[in-house]
Every structure is written in C-alpha cells, then in structure tokens.
Backbone:
C-alpha cells in the first residue's frame, strides 16, 4: 500500500505523542474567579444604590425646601398685612372715615367689636418666622453637601405644615376684619360737618365713660328700687332701643362673619388633610419607584456578570484552541526532525510482518499503530 509524505507526518505525530509526550495537558491560565466577579459586581451595585438613594433624598429635600420657603414668605406677608391692619385701625381713630363710623350706630358697634378682639402680635409672627427660617437654613446647608444623607423626620414636616396653616388662618382673619371695616364704611354717612364731628377715639372714650356711668346708675337704681328719678338717670327708651338695635345688628354681622370664618377654617382643614394624604401617596410612590429601580439595577448587574462569565469561557476556549494548535505544530516539527525519524524508522518503515500478527503479507505495509 503506497504511503505519501503527509500520511507519514501525521502517523509520526501520533506515534510521537503516544510514546514520548503522553496525554496532552492544558497550560494553566490565570482568570478572574467567580468570587472576585461577584464582589466587584456587589461593590458597583452598592455604589449605584447609594447614588440613587442620594438622588431620591435630594429630590425630597428640595420639595421640603420649597414648602418651608413658601411658609417663610407667608409669614412675611402676614407680618406686613398685620402691620397694615393695625395702622388702618389706628388711623380710623382720628380720621374723617372714623368720624363717619362714629355717627352710625351699627358701624360704631361693629368697630367696637373689632377693636375688642385680640390682635395678632408682630412679635409672635417674628418668632414663628425665625423658627421656620432656622429649618430652611438647615435644609439649604444639607443640600450643599455632595452626599446628601440626612432626611427630616415626619415631626419636622408636620411642624412646618402647622406653621403654614396657622399663618394662613391668621391672614384670613385679618382679611375678614378688613372686610368688616369696608362694609361699615360703605354704610356710614358721608354728609357730615367733619370740622365739628367728634373723632372715633373721642366717641369710644365717651361710650366707655357713659357705659360705666350707666352701669353705676342702673345698679343704684336697682338698690333704691323704684325711685321715680331713677328713670331720669337711665337713657330714654328710644335711645336704649337704638343702642340695643345697633348691638343686635353688629352681633348679626359678627355672627355672619364668624360663620364664614368657620367655613373657611373647615376648608383649610380639609386642604391640610388632602395635602397630608398627597404627601403620603407621594412617599409610597417614591418608595415603590426606588425599590423598582434597585431591582432593575440588580437585574442589570446579574445580566452583566453572566455576560462576563460567558466571555471568560469563550476566551478560555479560544486560548485552549490556540495552545492545542501550537502543541500540534510543535509535534509536527519534532516528527520532521531527522533524528526522531531515524529512531522511529523501525515503526514507520514498510515491511512484510507486523507485531502480534502471525505470518506475513505479500505487500510491504507500514506497522499498525493500534497494534503497539
């Protein structure tokens, strides 16, 4: 059987590997272990989670900052409004508009009720505003940090909401009293001799003086029990009727305004409840969105880790293929060495007998490698 050079080279390579080299072994290649990959992925995931947490915290702080700043501005407006209202009331005591109110029984009694109501102290407004400003400064200082890690608790947020609605209610009360003054001014007479008409302050002083005198006279009249001249001390019936009518009318106006105020307070309370519910819904939605983002980041990390492991396996397979080809080329080169071929000539040469086979062949044949 004829044998060409290529077949001889291949057979020589197999024989050389079987006799000299032994079984092939893969050269160890240092690769990244699964533990190191998991640690790196976990570290990267923690960094991304921290960045996302800082972003969410910063967003919530900015929303809280806007609410605190709105409350601070509301206190500033309230202070200006309260100061303007106090100045308006003080001006009426000596102005021509005040003289008009003094000449109208209903308007006078209504103004008396307004003046007797406790006013909002500017000192209290300033103190509350300073408290809110301190919280605002803390928020601004926290937002300037690179890593925002502080979140104001629910107690501070509720305190800001209470400040906001306190200022809103006080502003409503001042607007209500300004509305009363505007109403009584529209009803007060305008055709007066302002040069001779008494001021509102003088009328108030006279009212308080006469009221004290009337009270003392009524008491003595009751003690004297039916002295004829006691009736002369008291105001005549027509004047008493006018005072009572004016008092009733002013009470009606105040009761009406009180009903409006109570309704407005109820509306403000409902607005507060809606705001609290909206804040709770936003917190729940933000938490769910944050958890979804974290889960998505984790899935991305797991997918990236799987792709890295697959890439490592492909690279290792490619390296092994290269090494195998190099080993094969080395074997071929060794087989072509004349010294190697001289040593293997008894196994590679053609002959009529083969080991383990009785008898010979009629044609020259190479030795069977499987018989070795």
Residues:
């Amino acid at each position: 059987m004829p044998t060409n050079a290529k077949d001889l080279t291949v057979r020589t390579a197999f024989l050389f590997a079987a006799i000299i080299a032994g079984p092939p072994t893969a050269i160890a290649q240092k690769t990244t272990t699964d533990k190191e990959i998991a640690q790196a992925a976990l570290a990267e995931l923690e960094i991304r989670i921290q960045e996302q947490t800082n972003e969410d915290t910063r967003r919530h702080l900015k929303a809280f900052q806007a609410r605190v700043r709105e409350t601070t501005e509301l206190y500033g407006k309230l202070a200006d409004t309260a100061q303007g209202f106090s100045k308006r009331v003080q001006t009426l005591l000596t102005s021509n508009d005040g003289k008009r109110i003094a000449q109208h029984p209903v308007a006078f009694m209504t103004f008396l009720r307004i003046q007797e109501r406790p006013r909002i102290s500017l000192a209290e407004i300033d103190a509350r505003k300073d408290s809110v400003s301190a919280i605002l400064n803390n928020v601004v200082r926290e937002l300037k940090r690179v890593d925002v890690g502080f979140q104001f608790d629910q107690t501070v947020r509720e305190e800001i909401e209470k400040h906001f609605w306190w200022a809103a209610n006080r502003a409503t009360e001042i607007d209500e009293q300004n509305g009363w003054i505007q109403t009584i001014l529209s009803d007060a007479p305008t055709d007066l001799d302002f040069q001779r008409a008494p001021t509102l302050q003088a009328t108030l002083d006279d009212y308080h003086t006469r009221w004290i005198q009337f009270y003392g006279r009524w008491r003595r009249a009751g003690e004297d029990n039916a002295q004829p001249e006691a009736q002369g001390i008291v105001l005549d019936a027509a004047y008493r009727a006018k005072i009572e009518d004016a008092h009733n009318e002013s009470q009606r106006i105040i009761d009406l305004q009180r009903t409006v105020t109570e309704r407005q307070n109820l509306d403000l309370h409902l607005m507060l409840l809606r705001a609290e519910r909206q804040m709770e819904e936003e917190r729940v939605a933000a938490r769910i969105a944050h958890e979804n983002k974290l889960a998505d980041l984790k899935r991305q990390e797991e997918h990236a880790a799987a792709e890295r492991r697959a890439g490592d396996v492909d690279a290792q397979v490619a390296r092994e293929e290269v090494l195998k080809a190099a080993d094969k080329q080395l074997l071929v080169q060794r087989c072509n060495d004349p010294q190697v071929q001289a040593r293997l000539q008894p196994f590679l040469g053609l002959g009529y007998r083969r080991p383990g086979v009785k008898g010979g062949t009629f044609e020259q044949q190479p030795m069977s490698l499987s018989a070795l």
